[in-house]
Amino acid sequence: MRSRLAKAAFEVIKENGFANFRTSAVAKQAGVSQGAQLHHYRTKNDLTLAAMEYAYQRSHRIFKANIAKFTADEDPVEAVLRDAEDFYFSDYFLVALDILMAGGKNEELREQQIRLALNSRSTVEHAWIEKLASLGWEQSKAEDILNISFCLVRGYAIKLLITDNMSSYQQMIARWKNLVSQLISR
């Protein structure tokens, strides 16, 4: 029941935005009574965090599949970028971002949101850093390249909220990959 409600909360926020998030809409989306919803999630904050957790859990499944299928003969930067795109260009990121942006005035909720976001993404980052280090990359270079790669993709995901120019994204990524290959060969 909790997972059904978390998914419903995510779907409601995805469809209506966090500014229009109503707990009654979650109960309706999940096909349960408001009493049943209250039994599992007592407050709107609880449902909000459940929606974020749902988003991060689903995106983490995609990450696990991405890192599991990575092979040593594959371009590691391409794999990192593809994984970043799978998250940052997804509804999972956009819903979490919407919640973070709109829910930022509620200090208690904000603290929990930040902790959830950092915990979720830090496991992804650590796993990729370990993967890059296992390929012989220096730890500090792996950390920097991963961080900048994620920042580039995340930043462009935000830009896509106002433009749909993917050709400039592809050009930027090609340049970044060229720079990385120069850094790694040093």
Question: Can you describe what's shown?
Answer:
28% of the residues are buried. This protein has one domain (2-185): Orthogonal Bundle (Tetracycline Repressor, domain 2). The N and C termini lie far apart (54 Å). Helix content is 81%, strand content 0%. The protein has helices at residues 2-16, 23-30, 34-40, 44-69, 76-88, 91-102, 107-134, 139-159, 166-185. The protein is mostly helical. The chain is elongated. The mean pLDDT is 92.
Blueprint of the fold:
Layout: H1 2-16, H2 23-30, H3 34-40, H4 44-69, H5 76-88, H6 91-102, H7 107-134, H8 139-159, H9 166-185
Helix pairs in contact: 1-2, 1-4, 4-5, 4-6, 4-7, 5-8, 7-8, 8-9
The portion of residues assigned to helices is over 70%
* Total separate domains: 1
Q: What coarse outline follows from CA principal-axis ratios? A: elongated
- Under the CATH scheme, the architecture is Orthogonal Bundle
User: Which sequence of SSEs, written as H and E, runs from N to C?
Assistant: HHHHHHHHH
CATH superfamily: Tetracycline Repressor, domain 2
N-C termini distance: 54 Å
**CATH topology name:** Tetracycline Repressor, domain 2
Report the count of strand segments. 0
